[in-house]
Amino acid sequence: MLVAQPSMDIPRALLWINGRTRAASTNHTFEVHNPLRKKIVSVCASATSEDCKDAVEAAAHAFTTWEQVNPAEMQSYSDYSRRNWVKKIPLICGNTVVVKSSEYIPRSQAIAVEVMHEAGILPGVLNLISMSRENAPKLTTEIIGNPHVRHINFTGSDSVGKIIAAEAAKYLKPCVFELGGKTPAVVLDDANIPEAAQSIALGAMLHSGQVCVSTERVIVQRNIAAALQSELVAICGRLKAGDHINDPSVNLSCLFSESSAANVLSTIEEAASAGAQVLLGDMKRDGAVIQPHVLSGVKPGMRAWDRESFGPVIVIAVVDTVDEAVDLANASDY
């Protein structure tokens, strides 16, 4: 929702253009809510076409004194804080940059940009624009089409990546994408089962599975399948998602939005309806909170196997041979 005058006691995130912060040219803002408590945590400037053009022009002007490399446009999605490092790579390579922040976490990215300006980065080299979810498609298209933008980096879902790639192709602009994944872990029958289970659980449950390289698929040989499944259920069963600030027994956060949690739950429900066994988990959600789930008997063709869940979910398939395991690991659209 757009508002014109946010309360002064709520943190604000402004645009960074040409080394200075500023409100949107219309003074419009959008609210960002804590997905757990559903309270407003920040009010952020919602950029306009004019603001986006100013940011790109600032980057284009700055690169003449930075390095002779073209401006790049970057878009961030809500993954873990490592995303802030993605901004630095184009800068180190000599680019000037316009960052289009995620509408879910614009303030954290604004803080990172502020720190870089405090460290002395030159005006216009790093610019930050935020915008409401409703305005993002139109403005993103305009930014991609701006002739000063010569390269595009995008971190986010593969579905949005395809849209951006198609738009960039109209102008033959190169892109670098970091999209979703469905990382497999292959466990053969000579493996150390406790160590394998610990590694899988860490890879799957870190940040509640909200990592593009999260371990989402487990392929295990039949002779040790029962033992590995039992170990994974024991480890993940000791984890608890919820309010980690007020409940010391909680060690997993909620998901970044209720819609994401709803998508994860529907993926689990579809798999169970198609014959998968839910070894761990209550198949419920509390707003944006999903407890760890472990499923076995998941097969290609099920969304739980084919598509990134981006949640605290492990799916397991059992095979007989190493060749089967390798084939199944490689049978992915990612």
Automatic annotation (TrEMBL):
Name listed for the protein in its UniProt record: ALDH-like protein
Domain Aldehyde dehydrogenase: 26-75, 89-334
GO molecular-function terms, A-Z: succinate-semialdehyde dehydrogenase (NAD+) activity
Keywords in alphabetical order: Oxidoreductase
Pfam family, one: Aldedh
Domain of life assignment: Eukaryota
Any single biological process term in GO: gamma-aminobutyric acid catabolic process
